[in-house]
Design brief:
It comes from Nematostella vectensis (Starlet sea anemone). Pfam families: IFT57. Keywords: Cell projection, Cilium. The chain is mainly alpha-helical. The chain has a domain at 42-121. The chain is 80% helix and 0% strand. It has three helices and no strands. It has helices spanning 2-5, 18-32, 43-121. The longest helix is centred in the last third of the chain and has 79 residues, at 43-121. The protein is rod-shaped and about 145 Å long. The relative contact order is 0.03.
Length: 122
């Protein structure tokens, strides 16, 4: 078997002192740590930034939506008041407008009459 040919014939034993081994491990440990450099071009960084910005936008939207809803309600009430007052003013002035139009018509008739009369007198 090929798997048996790779097995050692005997067990390996270390003759290094345990204290020395610990010191050596402590000495080389910083060299064994994997340091991942953060690269601004790394897609993971961009993805995390997009998630952070998305959360910021969502929280701002929730806060802003409340303010906008209040503003919308206030504007709607104001527009209703304006429409109501406009209707009231129109109702109050309707008879005056009719009277004014009648006077304008009468004035126009008088002008025509006077123009016709002056053209006959000449």
């Amino acid at each position: 078997d090929s798997s048996e040919s790779h097995k050692p014939d005997s067990v390996m034993e270390s003759n290094v002192d345990a204290a020395e081994w610990k010191l050596e491990v402590e000495r080389v440990l910083p060299l064994l740590k994997v340091h991942i450099r953060t690269d601004n071009k790394d897609w993971r960084t961009h993805y995390e930034q997009m998630q952070q910005h998305s959360e910021g936008i969502k929280s701002s939207l929730n806060e802003t939506r409340g303010h906008l809803d209040k503003l919308h309600q206030e504007i709607s009430r104001t527009l209703e008041k304006i429409a109501s007052r406009e209707k009231y003013v129109n109702n109050q002035l309707e008879h005056l407008l009719l009277e004014y139009r009648g006077l304008q018509d009468s004035a126009a008739e008088v002008k025509i009459y006077l123009r016709n009369k002056s053209s006959f007198d000449n």
